[in-house]
């Protein structure tokens, strides 16, 4: 807190500072609101038909899917229900999709998508 | 990643990524980095992102990516057309991207209404090129980039070639709109309903 001895008025600092942990009732959950990418497992994905679809379906909050180089074909739409990162490992893989949209950001949860 | 629309079904109005059709109970983030989107042109109005009403993006980020040969729009963030101060995305960032042969707009960001209750939407658009963007007759905005009611706009180092104009509709309070160091080759000048935007070092050919 900034201070200046020439100023005689003001408030005194109250300690401890209010934090989510020391305020509010114990029975009310304090869920962290900020979402985070890249906090989960790294999962390798190989080229092929719907391999990425299956990988996203089995992935959990914050997981990172690493795609090997090659061709990926989706015949189903990927549903994104939580933060997920899809990225290339090495050269850029090519993704084609027979059904559009390729990905859907879903209603419930936090659909955060990084590609 | 390379995203190729060649195998997509021959329907109009396809999209690569879409939001839920219903209201989403939380906002979302979409970050696209180092991706190449090509040949989304199997039929008309093939959009990269399709959003529905009652969804809200915390951020939509396009970075180091290319968009080529697309029949629809890249970011069409204009689902809230009731003009009651509701809009579709808070922060939009387009950084170091190339747009080429896009039928619809590269970006269409709409915040309607006359109330001054929101800080957003906010747009940063830097170091990007637009070549032949927005020329499809179905592109109702008639713009390569259309900004309506955007509260903070910073456009720097963008080159527009053979494209529809950058259209601004500056409303609600005093929106901050700065356009710097950008080139417009064979592209109409910035179209704005009033002159309350700041420009610096713009080059029209």
Mean pLDDT score of chain A? 82
Which strand order do you get reading across the main beta sheet of chain B? 1-4-7-10-13-16-19-22
Strand order of the largest sheet of chain A: 1-3-6-9
Which protein chains are joined by the largest interface, and how many residues does each one contribute? Answer: A-B, 32 and 34 residues
* Helical amount of chain B: under 10%
Strand content of the residues of chain A, in percent? Answer: 25-35%
* Number of helical regions of chain A: 1
Question: Low-confidence stretches of chain B at least 5 residues in length (pLDDT < 50)?
Answer: none
Q: Low-confidence parts of chain A lasting 5 or more residues at pLDDT below 50? A: none
SS elements, strand count of chain A: 9
Biggest β-sheet of chain B, characterized? 8 strands, parallel
Count every helix of chain B, treating DSSP H or I runs of 4 or more residues as helices.
0
The number of E-state strands of chain B comes to 22
The end-to-end distance of chain A, rounded to whole angstroms, is 41 Å
| Strand percentage of chain B | over 45%
Average pLDDT for all residues of chain B: 89
Oligomer kind: heterodimer
Question: Any overview of this molecule?
Answer:
The complex is a heterodimer of chains A (115) and B (205). Chain A is elongated and about 70 Å long. Chain A has 115 residues and is mainly beta. In chain A, the strands form three sheets. Chain A has a four-stranded parallel β-sheet, with helices on one face. Chain A has a three-stranded parallel β-sheet with strand order 2-4-7, with helices on one face. Chain A has one helix and nine strands, in the order ββαβββββββ. Chain A starts with 41 loop residues before the first strand and ends with a strand. Chain A has a domain at 42-114. The longest helix of chain A has 8 residues, at 51-58. Chain B is built from no helices and 22 strands. The model of chain B has no long low-confidence stretch (mean pLDDT 89). Chain B has 205 residues and is mostly beta strands. Chain B has one domain (2-204). In chain B, the strands form four sheets. An eight-stranded parallel β-sheet of chain B has the order 1-4-7-10-13-16-19-22, with no helix packed on it. A seven-stranded parallel β-sheet of chain B has the order 3-6-9-12-15-18-21, with no helix packed on it. Chain A binds chain B through residues 35, 37, 67, 73, 83, 86-88, 92-115, and chain B through 1-9, 11, 14-20, 22-26, 28-36, 46, 50, 55.
């Amino acid at each position: 807190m900034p201070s200046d001895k020439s100023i005689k008025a003001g408030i005194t600092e109250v300690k401890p500072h209010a934090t989510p942990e020391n305020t509010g009732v114990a029975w009310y959950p304090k869920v962290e609101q900020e979402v985070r990418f890249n906090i989960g497992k790294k999962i390798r994905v190989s080229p092929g038909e719907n391999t990425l679809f299956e990988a996203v379906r089995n992935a959990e909050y914050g997981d990172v899917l690493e795609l090997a180089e090659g061709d990926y074909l989706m015949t189903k739409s990927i549903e994104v229900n939580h933060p997920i990162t899809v990225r290339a490992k090495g050269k850029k893989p090519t993704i084609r999709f027979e059904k559009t949209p390729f990905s859907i950001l879903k209603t419930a949860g936090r659909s955060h998508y990084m590609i | 990643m390379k995203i190729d629309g060649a195998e997509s079904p021959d329907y109009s109005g396809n999209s690569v990524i879409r939001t839920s059709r219903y209201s989403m109970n939380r906002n979302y983030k979409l970050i696209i980095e180092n991706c190449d989107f090509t040949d989304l042109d199997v039929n008309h109005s093939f959009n990269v992102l399709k959003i529905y009403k009652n969804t809200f993006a915390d951020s939509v980020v396009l970075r180091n990516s290319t968009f080529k040969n697309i029949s629809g729009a890249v970011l069409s963030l204009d689902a809230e057309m009731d003009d009651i101060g509701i809009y579709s995305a808070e922060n939009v960032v387009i950084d170091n991207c190339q747009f080429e042969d896009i039928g619809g707009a590269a970006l269409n960001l709409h915040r309607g209404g006359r109330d001054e209750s929101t800080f957003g939407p906010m747009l940063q658009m830097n170091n990007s090129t637009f070549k032949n963007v927005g020329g499809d007759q179905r592109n109702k905005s008639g713009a390569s980039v259309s900004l309506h009611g955007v509260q903070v706009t910073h456009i720097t180092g963008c080159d527009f070639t053979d494209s529809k104009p950058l259209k601004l509709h500056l409303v609600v309070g005093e929106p901050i709109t700065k356009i710097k160091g950008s080139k417009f080759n064979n592209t109409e000048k910035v179209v704005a309903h009033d002159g309350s935007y700041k420009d610096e070092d713009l080059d029209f050919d």
